[in-house]
Design a protein that fits this description.
D-Maltodextrin-Binding Protein, domain 2, about 30% strand, 6-stranded mixed β-sheet, 2 domains, about 30% helix
Length: about 230
């Protein structure tokens, strides 16, 4: 925890994230890909992180009210309002969204253009731009889980016959299970380049923070962090 006289970067964490993105001890984040990457960003600009763990909608309210300085692992299309381009960083991470189904069931390739009345496990409050038209026209019906960990468990036990989730989390979840109980990844939905969104707060070193985020990639810092949790 940062002391009051140390320069602080207040960072919002989406409360729905699970391993390997964020790992908790009790309610306190202590590790994970997103956690370590943001700690590295702060280190690159010589700031101490103050973590704020909240639901995504509340995080955006905090950012708009200047109560949070930065929220990462976002995409403009995931949000209900637009923010000026200068508020966004460059690439933070790449996220691959995949379709998953319960273990030991036949895999049938999903042709989105042909689906009709498909029930799909999703996460409450999350946006899926690649599926928007199918939701709008009723081809796919959302069945929301409150958090990603709940969605993964409900898919594994068959309550959700088909769901969409990010590959890193699915693979981390599967590594905790015997092979015959693991979720089946059937195909990729899309891959998004996620960014960080910065507050328009006077005094926030925006240029330096953006440069520190670029350094994650130019110095292969993020690659090393991901390797720690996936190998």
């Amino acid at each position: 925890m940062a002391h009051s006289n140390e320069p602080v970067l207040r960072v919002g964490l989406d409360a729905s994230w699970v391993a390997p993105h964020v790992i908790y001890q009790g309610e306190q984040p202590v590790a994970g890909v997103v956690y370590d990457a943001i700690e590295q960003i702060a280190k690159n600009v010589q700031l101490k992180v103050k973590w704020q763990v909240l639901p995504r909608k509340r995080l955006m309210q905090m950012l708009d009210q200047h109560q949070t300085d930065m929220v990462c692992h976002l995409h403009p299309k995931w949000l209900s309002r637009e923010y000026p381009p200068e508020r966004w960083s460059g690439l933070f991470m790449r996220q691959e969204s995949v379709f998953i189904q319960p273990p030991n069931r036949p895999v049938k390739p999903l042709v989105l253009a042909e689906v009709d009345h498909l029930v799909l496990g999703t996460i409450f409050g999350y946006q899926y731009p690649a599926l928007d038209d199918y939701f709008k026209h009723g081809n796919i019906q959302r069945l929301d889980s409150p958090r990603l960990d709940v969605l993964l468990k409900q898919t594994r036990n068959g309550k959700l016959p088909l769901s969409v989730a990010n590959r890193l989390s699915v693979e981390a979840f599967n590594r905790t299970l015997p092979v015959n109980q693991r979720l089946t990844i059937t195909q990729t939905l899309d891959t998004q380049e996620t960014l960080c969104l910065l507050a328009d707060k006077p005094g926030l070193p925006v240029a330096q923070i953006k440069q520190a985020i670029e350094q994650l990639h130019s110095s292969k810092q993020l690659e090393a962090i991901i390797d720690q949790y996936t190998r």
